[in-house]
Design brief:
The protein is built from no helices and eleven strands. With 124 residues, it is mainly β.
């Protein structure tokens, strides 16, 4: 089974940066989409960015220009570089994956069927 493990969350001041990482275990897919999402209690999960196995990306308008998704090679860790953080970025952040992808890589959470446990980001 594929497992995703996120790390890199923490507490920062507004204006600072964080880089989240997501390590994939049990990976055997030749094609895939991966994405970053966040959720605040009581609200729907929000899509942030996605990437496919050849590096095509999609980024939500809400974080475009501040957040960047990347991957260290086709099978390396997934990253989310977050700059100029704001208090409203406070949330639990999740990475997710699916072996089926489209062009551009989907942003909607319903596309993804493997999820990590999340890492908390708090901005004050």
């Amino acid at each position: 089974d594929v497992q995703l493990v996120e790390s890199g969350g923490g507490s920062v001041q507004a204006g600072e940066s964080l880089r989240l990482s997501c390590v994939v275990y049990g990976y055997t897919w030749s094609t895939y989409c991966m994405g970053w999402f966040r959720q605040v209690p009581g609200k729907e999960r929000e899509a942030l960015a996605s990437i496919d196995n050849v590096g095509r990306t999609s980024v939500a308008d809400s974080v475009k220009g501040r957040f960047t998704i990347s991957r260290d090679g086709a099978k390396g860790p997934l990253y989310l570089q977050m700059n100029s953080l704001k208090p409203e970025d406070t949330a639990m952040y999740y990475c997710a994956a699916h072996f089926v992808c489209f062009r551009p890589p989907p942003l909607h959470p319903s596309h993804y069927n493997v999820w990590g446990q999340g890492t908390q980001v708090t901005v004050s």
